[in-house]
Every structure is written in structure tokens, then in C-alpha cells.
Amino acid sequence: MMQKRVSDARAAIAGITDGMTLMLGGFGLCGIPEKCIAALAESGIKDLTCISNNAGVDDFGLGLLLQSRQIRKMIASYVGENAEFERQMLSGDLEVDLIPQGSLAERCRAGGAGIPAFFTPAGYGTEVGEGKEVREFNGKPHILEMALTADFAIVKAWKGDTDGNLIYKGTARNFNPVMAMAGRITIAEVEELVEPGELDPNHIHTPGVFVQRIFQGQDYEKRIEKRTTR
């Protein structure tokens, strides 16, 4: 049996080098792999292409890698609350591919399922559809979108076992399951790591076959991107 457990985030990101493509789970700051992102920021690895719903905030999540200019290209659906992301995009310092959110999720899922491309009506007639093949289905035009894969997929789960089986909690499930399937190597950081057989098989969201490295993180901040109160 493959030994998947590693000691910490620094060990988990071993092998990630300049110029690689990474998928990073999360939505806003919910369910992001905080520890691996921090380790990447410390590593100095640069020229990364990052696929994520958004890029965190200025001083947390992928915002840390933007601040240190480690990201060359962002493939995302939302600029969000990150002023640095917006500034780099508008100035041309950062290459950005903005994708409708549903298309982004499906492109990741397709990559994990071995489906090379699919047709969708989302984006037809906009800049999103420029230069893409168009076909008509049921009287409606659709554009061809290519699947997304990555050298490394980095996800965050609530619980996992040392075989790599994962359970996500609530809305932290978001992009994590589809991205876990689409990485050549998938890294999972979890809040609680248990031995095989301790997780109910009926509750597992990502089977261990998709995960190559796993570790238990400590002291998660779990920041709220934008707090609203009455």
C-alpha cells in the first residue's frame, strides 16, 4: 500500500517547481488549503498558473502568493475582495482567464473524469466565447470548453484517513471534490486524520484513490471573507 501520510505542508508540496499548474480548492476563504498556501508562499516558487474560484483576500489565501508575485496566471471565476488581484489584472501584470463559475466547476470535473471537452451555452456571445467552436443544440448555440487538469491539486477537508479518503464539511465542500480528481498529484490537508476503517464509507466524498499525499494541519484560522451583521 502506498504511504500517503506526510508530516506537514512543507513535505506535502515537495516537487512543486517554478512554472507548474496548481488547482486549489475553496470558495472565497471557505475550504481553502491554508497551510499549503502558506508553505508555497515561504518556498519562493514562482511563475505558477493557479486554478481557483478566486484568489482569497489581500493578506490571506492565494492573496499571499499574489503579493509576492509568485503567480503568473490566474484561472478563476471571481476577482472578489482581493484588491491586489484586481490591480494586477487591470495593469496587465497578471494574466487572467475569467470563466463563468459553473463552467469552471465543470471544466475541473471533466478533467478528473477524463472528458476532454464539452459544449455549454454559458458565455456564448460574450468575450468568454471568442475564438471557441460553436455548435447548436436544441436550437440554442453552445461553445466548446476544454477540460482543466493540473500538475498538483491541493484541497482542504474536514476529516480524512491515511488511505486518503476525505470528508468535507458543509459549504467547504465547494470546489474541493472536483479538483481532487483533476490533479496528477493531489495533496489533501485535513483538520482530523484517522486510521483506515474509522470513516463511514457512506459519508466519504473523495475516495482515497484520487489522493497521493495527506497531512493533518493545526490551528486553522478559517477567516470570513466579508463579515455582515445586522
Automatic annotation (TrEMBL):
Keyword Transferase applies: yes
InterPro entries assigned to the protein according to its UniProt record, in alphabetical order: 3-oxoacid_CoA-transf_A, CoA_trans_fam_I, CoA_transf_BS, NagB/RpiA_transferase-like
Keywords: Transferase
GO molecular function: CoA-transferase activity
Family matches, as PROSITE patterns: COA_TRANSF_1 (PS01273)
Pfam families listed in its UniProt record: CoA_trans
Membership in a protein family: Belongs to the 3-oxoacid CoA-transferase subunit A family.
PANTHER family, per the entry: ACETATE COA-TRANSFERASE SUBUNIT ALPHA (PTHR13707:SF60), KETOACID-COENZYME A TRANSFERASE (PTHR13707)
NCBIfam families referenced in this protein's UniProt entry, alphabetically: pcaI_scoA_fam
Name recorded for this polypeptide: Succinyl-CoA--3-ketoacid-CoA transferase
Organism: Neolewinella marina
